[in-house]
UniProtKB/TrEMBL annotation:
It comes from Salipaludibacillus neizhouensis. PROSITE patterns: TPR. InterPro entries: CellSynth/LPSAsmb/PSIAsmb (IPR051012), TPR-like_helical_dom_sf (IPR011990), TPR_rpt (IPR019734). Keywords: Repeat, TPR repeat. TPR repeats lie at residues 137-170, 208-241, 276-309. Signal peptide: none annotated. This is Uncharacterized protein. It holds the Pfam family TPR_19. SUPFAM superfamilies: TPR-like.
Length: 423
């Protein structure tokens, strides 16, 4: 019996799926096939994504062995994969507290309730289970996962720490608990603790996500050498992990290794030609080096890919304004208007460009929108005030200068200008 199953599995592993599955289908229906083999076949079907075949076997076994909670848990996983969450919940609630599968059932129940948006019920299930088994590290880890997914990082840290301290965590956990704890610490800004646990977790198991988190955390701590090493190791493992390229480039830039940064960004674009962050970093790198033509082209590339990228738009508008290319400012804003892309910050640039183009009334309207929509910082207030004054809107200009001086009383130049205007 086991030899037949082994031969069928070998065929599947060798790519002969149809022949292998035919043999398994035949085997599961043979009268002499024992229940243990059927259970193994059900697990195999599940792994192959043939959940509808798996559940038929599991339901048959459940009928014969109603006291085996692990079968009910298995059935719940099948139902969940088939989109039958209510049936899955029914299966899990059948598992008694003294059953070896009880803890697994509570974890599965929590996942199901959470997926249905019933987060409070999910939390309650996990906490109730932990009250009954207060030293169970798997439940502690499960609560850590629950709180991490909710963004409640402090609670996640508490339960991850308890799980690690308790020990006895099974090898089949989805990730090293130290890496999860590191992720939670990093999310709270406690980067030193995060770096420590990332290193500890990666010593146990090197994963791409773990290396990314390690490199990113090192970047926040300005430990650029560590960041570069982590990101390079990640790319050795998975060159298609395209998120990392822009961060690796930032680390190289911080180390004044411009050519390395340029190479990394170009390599990233070869992997993902639609990655806006890579073009944006290339633009900044060129502009910082005085290569304005290339920098402008890359910013325009980002906007062509995604006109909604406000960061790229702002940087290109600032570049045009710095170079007094107000015609290009208006052309870019017209392009964005055609795509119904809008952000109030654009109105400040629009106002200045229109004023320089002698479209005074339109310029003042744009400044009014900016003043009513944006934080009225000193730059905006001063620019708008002098534009209104230059447009013979003296009262409005004075009011804005008074607002500016009230917020920034150290600006004696504004005080003097107000005195002159009021004389």
């Amino acid at each position: 019996m086991y030899e037949k199953l082994a031969n069928a599995i070998k065929l599947i592993e060798e790519g002969q799926h149809e022949d292998g599955l035919t043999q398994i289908d035949t085997l599961v229906n043979e009268p002499e096939t024992d229940d243990e083999t059927k259970r193994t076949i059900a697990e195999l079907y599940f792994e192959l994504g043939l959940v509808d075949r798996s559940i038929v076997i599991v339901e048959e076994l459940m009928f014969q062995y109603p006291e085996h909670g692990e079968l009910f848990a298995f059935a719940a996983e099948c139902y969940s994969e088939l989109g039958k969450e209510d049936e899955a919940i029914d299966m899990l609630t059948e598992i008694k507290q003294d059953d070896d599968s009880y803890i697994q059932a509570q974890l599965l129940l929590a996942d199901l309730y959470e997926s249905q948006g019933l987060e409070e019920v999910a939390e309650q299930k996990l906490i109730e289970a932990l009250k009954n088994e207060p030293n169970d590290s798997v439940l502690q880890f499960g609560l850590g996962e629950f709180y991490l997914n909710r963004g409640d990082y402090n609670h996640a840290i508490s339960y991850y720490r308890k799980a690690i301290h308790q020990g006895d965590l099974p090898d089949e956990l989805p990730i090293q608990p130290q890496l999860r704890l590191a992720e939670a610490y990093s999310a709270t800004g406690e980067f030193e603790d995060a770096l420590l646990y990332y290193k500890e977790g990666l010593d146990e198991e090197e994963t791409t996500d773990g290396l990314f988190g390690y490199g990113f955390t090192a970047l926040q701590l300005e430990d650029y050498e560590t960041s570069v090493k982590a990101f390079n190791r990640l790319l050795e493992m998975d060159p298609d992990y395209t998120t990392v390229y822009s961060y690796l480039a930032k680390a190289f830039i911080a180390l004044n290794q411009r050519e390395e940064a340029m190479t990394v960004l170009q390599d990233g674009i070869k992997k993902d030609e639609f990655n806006e962050d890579l073009y944006l970093e290339l633009a900044r790198l060129h502009l910082k080096s005085g290569e304005n033509k290339e920098g402008r082209q890359y910013l325009e590339k980002v906007i062509a890919l995604n006109p909604s990228n406000v960061t790229a738009v702002k940087e290109l508008l600032a570049y045009f304004e710095e170079n007094e290319d107000f015609e290009s400012v208006l052309e870019l804003l017209s392009f964005l208007d055609d795509y119904n892309e809008y952000d109030p910050v654009y109105e400040r640039y629009r106002g200045k460009a229109l004023f320089e183009d002698d479209q005074v009334e339109e310029a003042l309207e744009a400044y009014e929108v900016a003043l009513n929509s944006l934080t009225r910082d000193d730059a905006l207030l001063e620019e708008a005030a002098f534009t209104f004054l230059a447009s013979n809107k003296k009262e409005k200009g004075i009011n804005l200068l008074e607002e500016l001086f009230k917020a920034y009383p150290e600006r004696y130049d504004i005080e003097e200008r107000l005195i002159d205007l009021k004389d």
